[in-house]
Amino acid sequence: MPPPWRLLARRLCSTSTRDPAHAPTPAAAADLAAATVLRVPRFESRLLSLLPRAVLFDASCLRLTFARLLPFPAPSLRFLRFVSSHLPAPTDGAPAPAASPPLPGIDAFLLRLPPPVAAEAAAILASHLGLHPSLPALNAASRAALHAARPDLVFQLFSTFSSSPAFPGDAATVACLARACAADGRPLDGLRLLRDAARRGSPPSPVAAGDLIAAFAADGNFAKVSDTLHFMIAAGCPPDTVVYQRIIHQLFAQGMGGEALRVFREIKLRGYDIDRVTYTTVIDGLCKIHRLADAQQTWDEMVGKGIEPNEYAYCSLVDYYCKAGDFEKARKMYDEMLGKGFKESATSCNILITGFCVHGRVDEAVGVFEEMVTKGIEHDVITYNTLIQGLCKVGKFGQAIQMYEQLLSSGLKPTVSTFTPLIDAMCEEGEVHAAVDLIKLMQAMGLEPLVRSNDSVINGFCKISRSDEGMAWLAGMLKNNIKPREQTFNALVESLSTSGRLDDALLVLSTMFKVGFELSRFACTILVDKLCTRNVSYSHELDDILVSN
Questions:
Q1: Region at 149 (left for phi over 0; alpha for psi -120 to 50; beta for the rest)
Q2: How confident is the prediction for the chain on average, in pLDDT?
Q3: Taking the CA atoms of the chain, what radius of gyration do you get in angstroms?
Q4: pTM of the prediction?
Q5: pLDDT, tens only, 324-354
Q6: How far apart are CA 496 and CA 234, in angstroms?
Q7: Is the separation of the CB atoms in 399 and 407 below 8 Å?
Q8: Across residues 450-456, what is the average pLDDT?
Q9: Is the dihedral of CA 357, 362, 364, 370 positive or negative?
Q10: CB neighbours of 189 closer than 8 A, spacing ≥ 6?
Q11: 241 contacts 273 by C-beta, under 8 angstroms
Q12: Cβ contacts of 528 within 8 Å, gap of 6 or more
């Protein structure tokens, strides 16, 4: 005997065929549609054959069908996409479907989906079914989108919510939109949103204001940082320690260490409770600008208050000592960190490896690399990149290639920083065509080589007396609006002049002058010497060179 859903399909189809006046009710049609979606793997064509389009795509039938599918997220999403593909997209200015009563389960359905899919589903529900999530669910989906670094989805969710009776939302909605503006590089728009909400009696969200302050600070716009702080205070929402911590972090990042230290001292005088994160931010920033005495004083102050340093604070000092070449103090601090119960990690090992490589002690760096294996610490791409660069720097090109091959066999993906030192070393060793092959491999992987890698190729061609290929590479750079360095132009002029290709040398020289570079004394001497030994046809060019230099 056929299953009940198939008997229902036969009855509905025969009824609608015999008597259009007795078309299936929306509820009966929804039962059939939902059963088909759940039981038939490729339900799309079956649905269109079982039910007339006028019945299947009736708004009431769609809502009832979706309600029956809601306990099953994957079929529900497939059904929504099926509906979207068979109904015309809403046009600008067209009225949205009348909002339907809230549908139980719709919030849980949307919040189970990844942010991009949730935004897509919310748009289909609003535009074709007139269904909306609750305001708390909208805000939760927006926060999930922010967490996924997708501010565009926040705007999309808000746009689809515009036909909801709960539009335009509440203070949490405004906070999400302001944070999205900050993440999207539009902090001014976010500040306007917070100001408008404050005028309507809604105090600014400290988290949103903090995001805007961080965005302004990252742009170096500290005037707007000050404006935002004064706005928060005037609105009765004084900034907390977290906000100031973010300001201090960005001041250090912008190279304004003195101002960062001034802000830190000022908030202490104002009675702010300085936490571990803020202390660590200051210690790390001071280490990066080589103010070790201030960093040590801040460390002592933190410990004196009974605040235990975290792993990041220890790593900041270890990193400073390593880069300064004081490996005895670095090891002492590293051992103290381990004695406090912190575990060695790829991050802490990379600091040691970097310090050794900076000072040319690559054998010790390789030793740390090998110890990581015995300790069960996985290498990351930074580990490999640091060692590849360090090995190339001291001329151990063969070992660098072996490290590159080991990176590939580990399953990690190389980055621009992986390839750059290899390309430089290949060109230095005269293996320019191998370097060109590596650049092509990079581009095939979607990685764009640095300008310096192109410069290395041209200099490499000049070293092996292939200035014609160097000139061709220069032409390719200029065609792609990539500006070579001044010394690259000079190297090419020298190589072309030495090989007697004076017309090409003068062409490169002309281009060099157009981009604002000067001919070096050595290149000028070679070119002038070659021009003087030729016929009088180069006299004007010779005069121009002598005048310009």
A1: left
A2: 86
A3: 33
A4: 0.71
A5: 999 999 999 999 999 999 999 999 999 999 9
A6: 68
A7: no
A8: 92
A9: positive
A10: 181
A11: yes
A12: 542, 545, 546
